[in-house]
Each structure stands twice: as C-alpha cells, then as structure tokens.
Amino acid sequence: MTETAMKLGMGVLLIAAAPVGGDPGVWAQWGLAGLVVCYTMWRDWQRERRMSDELQQHQTWVRDKLLGALERNSVALEKVASRPCPAQREEA
C-alpha cells in the first residue's frame, strides 16, 4: 500500500511540475527530471514484481515443508502417547 502511495505521489508531482508554457529550456529541464522519475518508477515496479513472485515461491516451499514436518511430528507424538509409561509398568 505504501509503495502504491509513493508511486502515485511521484506521478502527481511529475504532472504538477510539468511546464505549461512553450519555453524549450523549461521543457528540457523537466524532461530530464521526468525521465529519471519514470525510469525509477519502472525499475522499482519491475523489482517489486520479480520479488513478489520469488517471495510467493519461497513462502509456498516453506509452508509445504513445515506442514510435512508438523504431520510427521504429530504421528511421532501419537506413537509415543500410545505406548505405556515405563514408570507405571514398574508400579504394577
């Protein structure tokens, strides 16, 4: 959400800074700043998309591994719980 707000804010500032007159010097200044801002926004968008895919794959892998470990733990605990306690056998 904050990334979207930051990008939207940068876009609004870029539009607000656009020169209205036809002075080529002002347009040249604005064009360079606009190019830098557009490139930065595009680069960050590409990185966010790539990292989002990689994080999703990593979370899926972790979830699957942890779920498997939890199931194996549950089976092991059920086996341990089903055996009689050695201390109770000695008392009998």
Task: Give a nutshell description of this structure.
By secondary structure, this protein is mostly helical.
List the helices and strands and how they pair.
Blueprint (H helix, E strand, L loop, with lengths): L1 H15 L7 H59 L3 H6 L1
Helix pairs in contact: 1-2
Note down, in words, how this protein is organized.
- The protein is an all-alpha fold and 92 residues long.
- It has one domain (23-91).
- Helices cover 87% and strands 0% of the residues.
- It is rod-shaped, with a radius of gyration of 30 Å.
Pick out its properties.
92 residues, rod-shaped, 3 helices, 0% strand, mainly alpha
Tally of strands: 0
- Structural class of the secondary elements? mainly alpha
- Give the overall shape, derived from the CA principal axes: rod-shaped
Q: Assign a percent range to the helix content.
A: over 70%
In the predicted model, the low-confidence regions spanning at least 5 consecutive residues are: none
Q: Largest sheet at a glance?
A: none
Order of helices and strands: HHH
- The end-to-end span amounts to 65 Å
Radius of gyration: 30 Å
Overall average residue pLDDT:
80
Number of domains: 1
The number of distinct helices, counting runs of at least 4 residues, comes to: 3
Taken as a percent bin, the fraction of beta residues is under 5%
